[in-house]
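Standup, Tuesday
Yesterday: got the pipeline producing structure tokens again.
Today: sanity-check two examples.
Blockers: none.

Example 1:
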Amino acid sequence: MTATNASKGAKVPIFYAERVIHMTEQQARSKAVSTALGYLGAVQGDARHAEILGIYNNFRPLPQGYAVKANDAWCSTFVSVVGMLLGWTDIMPPECSCGRMIELYRKHPQSKWEENDAYVPQPGDLIMYSWKDIATGFENQDNTLWPDHVGIIEKVEGRVITVIEGNYSKSVKRRNIAVNGRYIRGYCLPAYRLKASEAPAIPVAPDATPNDEIIWQYFKSKNTFTDEGIAGLMGNLYAESGLNPNNLENWMNEHLDISDEEFTRRVDDGTYNRDWFINKNGESGRGKDGGWGYGLNQATWWSRKQKLYDKAKAKGVSIGDLQMQLDYVWEELQGYPNVMATLKSARSVLAASNVVLAEYEKPADMSTSVQLKRAEYGQKYYDKFAAKEQKEDFEMLTPDEFYEKYFAPAMQRWNKETAALDPADWSEDAREWAEGNGLIKGVGEDADGEPIYQYKTYLTREMAATLFHRFYECIVAPAQER
């Protein structure tokens, strides 16, 4: 299939005309974070891990000339791929070695290396770790050991840093760590400010096209794809046709000196008959494959146009009928199991958009810039429709529903993240005394058999009562007996 109106800019009706926005530095940082989030949940050995390695290994020039293997550590490869997908390797130098990545940032003319472990990072910064950091006094001593791991900062709330990391337990996962916490080696700081003033600005889909809400609701009614999946699909359809089911590929308009509407009318009335439309032998196109695209998804190969034509005739509707073409796209997607599976589970517009681009639409140009542009189109539809639906859902909730859907999960997440934080150094003597006297026993053991104390969680009345009881049994009662 071939991109036409939206991507080439020619013959675009005024309501399809692209507009542009200018990024601030914070928006540039958010783009980096969103790109990383698109791979959240990827596991070493699965299709998305293979995609990460493929993007890195196909980059030229390949850093150090080394192609990352399937069983290699891939944390720095992951953050490098974020920069590659954005087309920002000029400020995010790619490298599959954490140590070499630090050196690249040290020598970079605009991006920089931040040695201070106590630095408070921003979203989009890269955090380096060294697992051999000292256990006592790390807050006051700079960690200068060889780096073992890297991730990209998602957010900083208070003193808690949330990081997105590749190769975290062989997957892309979040980690929470305290500002100036143990194991922090330092930070790589991409010069996002340079992207805030670049021109041309990022093209995005228009605020509305005549058919966008109809198409959104059609796929929502299937109760199959996530909102991110629908948005990623729609971004590709927009890039192919502007969401116009009458759309004829631009060069064919010029070849025939005809508009989309007139072409559609001639197919409907038989002036262009079935054999001509299918164009199997290329009498009016570029070669035996049919050569030119038509419709929402720009069906180009003769067999796909044959199915589209036959479906229109069977239903007794125009070849440019929107509902018929949506049914055609839906039925055709069933033959792409990986695309279907990804759209059913997608949690990022970028991931959904990329699978549609690479496995369903398959245009000649699938470069990084095309990937990002189509994802931008899809994000616009996500922001317009999914965000609106979520807002309406939120406003209709009863207090009990709000508690179950939002408050309780948020508190569970907060408790889990807080419990994972290491205690501060200033409490070490008190903790050792409490543990040694049996006042604090923990809530189980970790994978290494060490007690889990959860020192950063709040003290409940239940916990306080247990603490007082243990104090009496372990301290007061023995003293009274003496």
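Example 2:
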Amino acid sequence: MVRRLRFVSPLDSLPQCAMMELYFLTFKPMSSRGELTLPLVKVKEKFQVTIPTELREALHLTVGDLLEATIENDTIVLKPKAVVDRTQAWNGVIEVIERVHAKQRPHTQDPKKEEEEITREIKEYRKQHARSPHRSH
């Protein structure tokens, strides 16, 4: 029986999404002569610009996607943003809260006494961590 050894790259253990991220981080548009090229865009009427194909494909942008526009160091930055329906987001939060509560042990203490204990704990914490007027941050 002949055993064949297979070369295993450290990159083979990365999940596919990490590999895609790594690919896009290392992607550099090059001309046929191997020179780094940066696509130029023209500001048209009504201040519209067309995002170059390489950039749209690299970020998987489609018509209707939302981009957050900001200025950083005299540079216009467009960041893709996902919009989630508020009701859907709130339902997700409630679902997570219910899962957390399901894993907690039942409370045996009277709610009023529990509240008083929490208040005592907070006061004690604040006392221990209070800033002294003579202490610097």
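Quick observation on example 2: The domain at 10-32+39-81 is CATH 2.10.260.10 (Pemi-like Protein 1; Chain: D). The chain has a mean pLDDT of 77.
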